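Researcher: Please translate sequence to structure tokens.
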Amino acid sequence: MTQPLNRLETLSLGIVVERRRSASPWADWVWRPVSVIPGAPPVDGGPRILLEGDGWLHLHAATLPLELYRTDTEGYRLNLSQEPPRLWIVLRPDESGEAMVPFFVTASAHEGEAYQVSGAESVDTVPMPPEVIALVRDFTEQHHVDVPFEKRERKRHFDKDGARR
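Model: Translation complete:
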């Protein structure tokens, strides 16, 4: 199996999701990511309950790869400039449609925003743990290349005499 040339770093992240009883008449539960566990093992046999309270659960719902790409370093830099840096986690409905399951995780502000516009998924952020911040910062410093902005010349719709082309 070959890896894409621009992917250089991968880290497994356990995704912790909160399931809270909903006050809405249209949904029984509200699902949202609350944290990540760097280096977590795969979840076999379904989600594991980590914490439980009155009307809520925190579940280790999945382990997903955080993949860092050389082409996304601008998005990582933008994220690292925020206080605190965040991870974007995308949740999708499971086959039954009753639960939301982690689908994707990214450290790129641009990629996280792209998932937010689709409307089919639920996208939320969680604080980036210090060891993930260090990894993303080192990766970005090592691979980021500033691309100078070049203004494109505007196409003229009229010639010099004012006649339309």
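Researcher: Any highlights?
Model: The chain has one domain: 7-143.
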